[in-house]
Model the fold of this input.
Amino acid sequence: MTKQGRSVLELTVNNHAGVMSHVCGLFSRRGYNLEGIMVMPIEGTDGAQSRMWLLVNEEDKLNQVISQTEKLVDVLCIVRHPVEGSIFTQMEEYFRS
Done:
């Protein structure tokens, strides 16, 4: 698998049952594969919000999927990052050693 063409989407979401299912379901309905998912609660929110990182391949429809994801009620914010230096890169290095 090449690292070119991949991005990390960082979502801030309301933390309750079903949020990950809604986000993953949207990607699934669009025929878009998630290569990695990591979720952790955000400190200082008393468990009300979580940060979700999604490792995705960039394709023509990524901007459309981001736009649709922003419309989900429990998604508060989306930021797109390069893969380099992300938690996914660190995890790949860890598992290779």
Observations:
- Residues 56 and 75 are 17 Å apart (CA to CA).
- The helical segments are 19-29, 62-70, 87-96.
